Amino acid sequence: MLPETRQGLVTATAVVVATLLAFWLELDNPWWAAFSAHNISHGDRNFVIRKGLMRLAGTLFGIWLGYELALGTHGNVLIQATALFVTIYFATKMRFTSQYDYAWLIFMMMIVMMMFVGIQEPVELYDFAYARILEVSLGVLVCAVINFFVRGGVAKTSASAPDKAHMVADIERLALMSGCIVVAVPFLWSWLELPSMVQIAVTILAMVDRDLLQTREKSGYRILGCFAGGLSGLLVLGLGFDLLWAWTLVLFVGVALAGRLYHSASRFSYVGKQFNLAFIITLVTGSGPAESIMPVLDRFSGIMGGVVLVVAASFLFAPKRVQEPAGSK
Description:
Strand order of the largest sheet: 1-2
Largest sheet: 2 strands, antiparallel
Mean pLDDT: 83
């Protein structure tokens, strides 16, 4: 069996087990448990532990700080926007300079989620924070246990390290871009009546890359993967897989097949990851198989909205090309 095929099966097992346990525990948003299991799954057990710990640390500290900021700035739009910008600005710089980049990414996501929930539904803030901690912890624990007892495929070939001089030159630009877009989301959400403000912001942070050109390339892969995964999930819902065992089997097969691409060394591996995330979002809702497509469409629209904003900002913040003098060729 090919390593990527084996790892795809291990990933699918972790996702299904985490999802079913989240259903059993009646957690608010079981897809967060599924996401956590999916995103830290890897052929290297040490990598799983390291990434799992970073996800837990980013979640705990992000929710703690986000909770304090949401309560401390409630009712004052200017202070909220300032706190959000400053936090995302400095956290983005840490993300692209620290060896714990994944922890900083999750840290930012949780802060943004907490502050946006505080804007929309402040009375739900504590319950929201408590549920996210349980869901993320469950997904990480399940994935770690499964990867410990079941050896997955070998680690895929990593990309070449970025040029440090180029990376440092762009960090300031990336930090400014991330802070500005995230701050703009609540205003655009209110003005244009956009769906799923939280999903838009999370998508934005996930999309930002060290290289703005890579950000645009990832946006294309994200759109392709999300459309394929979302449409596949909607097709499953349309076929009416109401029985839990049939629904579980479809979820397992879909995640395993896309997981094979995700864990391969292909340049399109990111498409496989986005397929699975959209597929999970579509199928995993509430405490069982989805009964309505409206929440699914809302989250899916939020993803697309975030992609559009990142692509637009990548052109706005991209460095200007240096024109060669005439006759230099």
